[in-house]
Amino acid sequence: MSPLSGGEALLLPEMTPPPSPTPLPSLTPQPLTVTSVRAFVPSEPWQGNCPHTFRVWAEITLSGEGSETLNYRWHRSDNFVGPEHSLQVGAGTYNVEGEWRVTGDGSYRIRIEILSPVAIFSEWSAFHEVDCR
What is the pTM of this model? Predict the structure, then answer.
């Protein structure tokens, strides 16, 4: 309180600080990146005549902004590395497929290598059992 003439006091309102400004969303585009990648083979064992061709596939999830070329290749458990493939992608989930022809009995699995926009490998898939007759 401040004394005034005549013994009166002047009451001043309490001052509160202004509210903090709300942060603005980032104006910097977030680059496209791979957030998940999984490789698959058929879960059921196969019995029959060989050679046997089976389908392999992968699920690739990306987040971020823009559009880029996704480059990938398959790695097989017999140490074969396939040729490079490419696909134009944006944010979202994509399924890519391939085939593997085997000539004999075995337990086969696969993984996929993403070369760009971010280098990453999937884990190995489960095994696909082949029993040639």
Answer: 0.76
